[in-house]
Amino acid sequence: MADTVAAPHIQQLGADMAPVHNPYTGEAIASVRTVDATATGTVLQRARCGRRIAAALSRATRTSVLERTARLVERRAESFAQLIVSEAGKTITQARKEVARAVNTLTLSAAEVRRNAGEVVPFDAYEGSEQRQGWFTREPLGIIAAITPFNDPLNLVAHKLGPAIAGGNAVILKPSAHTPLSALRLVDTLIEAGLPEEIVTVVNGGADLGAAIVSAPDVRMVSLTGGFATGEAISRTAGLKKLAMDLGGNAPVIVMDDADLDPAVESCVSGAFWAAGQNCIGTQRILIAREVYESFRDAFVARTKGLRVGDPLSEHTDVGPMITAAAGRATQRKVEAAVAEGAVLLCGNELNGSLYTPTVLEDVPPTCSIRQEEAFAPVVVLQPFQSFEDAIEQANAIDYSLHAGIFTSRLDRALSAARLLEAGGVMINDSSDYRFDAMPFGGFKYGSMGREGVRFAFEEMTQPKVVCVNHLDTAW
């Protein structure tokens, strides 16, 4: 096992070692250095040094570093994709798409440095301020703690590092213990592209380390992509600082009776089972008009049964492993509990190691956890509805929401759904899992804090500073 994987520019903190396992084979593919809460002082000292260096970097330097990093990642795309497969279990096709998105995220971040510098404030447009003129700039917050999950181990790290660096901040990055290797390689590539190494401090460790970092007064913002339990713990301990959290969802997709069923089925299958369902905007609840329910259900189940589950390195695999065998077992137990309460299993729910077959359920009681909570697994619940109003009510019945979708050929219904659905994004004639890295991304209702998407994260990670000049009679 290697100490760090293809990251020669990073000096990792800590003496203890933790293995990183391939989700498909179970093999330990690398080890990384770890620290606990006792190292927090060292981490913060390095981050304070990084904050001073980052604040002094010119916009030209920040832009060129991010642009060069994007080009290096692009040139090494296959190597990055292979690394994602080995530590996260995504299929090679899905991993290549993630790398392409990360390149786009970094490129957008570079553009934001030039684009979003501030604005002129028209002081002289207001009575009493005729002799004043000025502007505001966007200034860094300082030190940002970024905590990232396993399911997009490269692009979700880029979504935090790119805007943070663009804004002139230092970052303490705590990647998922399951998938630290892509994060390390991306930070190493940033340093190779010219970023001073003190600006990003990568730490691997447990919850005690995370709590110590997020509660430190020097940390001015915590950006988390993760689960609700982690988000709640952070909100209790963070103190007076900015919080941005993407805490998951339970995405509904509505299929109206006037929808074109073939593309709806294809899109929903992809949206449900991409990345083995380990996707916060993955399609989990499909609400189908009673008139077309059986036709959609039969086509959806047939297409699901045709998915190939297996080795994620194979070009022919559609669904790779879940992140651990334990995650697969937990999912299987939830499905079996739903069946025991009256749900009908249409296909799937077979487990072989960490490989869990795509699973479709119907007649799931509303009290079941698999219907009420985020599954984060390749599991879909089919629900019929009687009317458009009924569909909206069912879609909005969950306490938290990221994305939703609707398939319809009627513009009035599409626009009504866009207005009525309680979600951070409404995808029309698309499944819930569509995301473009430039758009605002975040949740509605419980747990909604802030927005990602490069421009919006950049603005979250910076603060306006106003400069106002009063033209006195004194000559300048």
Layout of SSEs?
Layout: E1 16-21, E2 28-34, H1 40-56, H2 59-75, H3 77-88, H4 92-115, E3 118-121, E4 132-140, E5 143-147, H5 155-166, E6 170-174, H6 181-192, E7 200-202, H7 207-214, E8 219-225, H8 228-237, E9 242-246, E10 251-255, H9 261-273, E11 283-289, H10 293-305, H11 325-340, E12 344-347, E13 351-352, E14 355-356, E15 359-362, H12 369-372, E16 379-385, H13 388-395, E17 400-401, E18 403-407, H14 411-420, E19 425-428, E20 444-445, H15 454-460, E21 462-470
Parallel strand pairs: 5-6, 5-8, 6-7, 8-9, 10-11, 10-18, 11-16, 15-16, 18-19
Antiparallel strand pairs: 1-2, 3-4, 4-21, 12-15, 13-14, 17-20
Helix pairs in contact: 2-4, 2-6, 3-4, 4-5, 5-15, 9-10
Helix fraction, binned, reads 25-40%
* DSSP strand count: 21
Radius of gyration: 24 Å
Q: What's the average pLDDT?
A: 94
Which percent band covers the strand fraction?
A: 15-25%
Write down the overall geometry. globular
Secondary-structure class: alpha/beta
- The N- and C-terminal alpha carbons lie at a distance of 66 Å
Low-confidence stretches: none
Q: How can the largest sheet be summarized? A: 7 strands, mixed
Order of strands, main sheet, comes to: 12-15-16-11-10-18-19
Number of helical segments with 4 or more residues:
15
